[in-house]
Amino acid sequence: MYVTIDTSALIAVIGNEESKQDIIDLTEGCSLYAPMSVHWEIGNAFSAMFKRKSYSIKLAIQALQSYREIPIKFIDVSLENTLIISHSLNIYAYDAYIIQCAQQTSTSLLTLDSGLKDAAKKIGIHILEKIQ
Asked: How far from 11 is each of 65, 69, 74, CA to CA, in Å?
């Protein structure tokens, strides 16, 4: 199975958050896709944690080492299609990149972001979620 994964799920895994094992279980045996923008989103997420003084540079560098070990195929998504998605769903481009990646690769989406889940569902993207 192929899955598009977003920054929130990746940060949870590399940051050893509570949902890490659930994400690993959900993606076991899957091939992962992400838009190339995820690299910058990962950096932005850590810079936000630095500003809140909730994460050290040492931990961030360790997390990046873990990030590099995750086999992800990075997709160059269509900027034009992304802008159409952004406009039609009234969402930020970073969320639209993720949705465009899932559309372009015909994959389910794994995210912890409820707003992104809602937006993706509106245009028919399947959301990969933990089975209760």
From this structure: 12, 13, 16
Residue 114 resides in a domain: yes
40 CB contacts (<8 Å, ≥6 apart)?
Answer: none
| Range of weakest confidence among 35-39, 87-91, 96-100, 128-132 | 128-132
CATH number at residue 63: 3.40.50.1010
* Neighbour order of strands in the sheet with 108-110: 72-75, 31-35, 2-5, 108-110
What pLDDT band is residue 131 in, cutting at 50, 70 and 90?
Answer: low
User: What span, in angstroms and rounded, lies between the C-alpha atoms of 36 and 26?
Assistant: 22
Is-contact 70 3, C-beta < 8 A? no
Round to whole Å and give the CA distance between 77 and 83: 11
pLDDT given for residue 132 in this prediction: 45
Kindly state whether residue 93 falls inside one of the protein's structural domains: yes
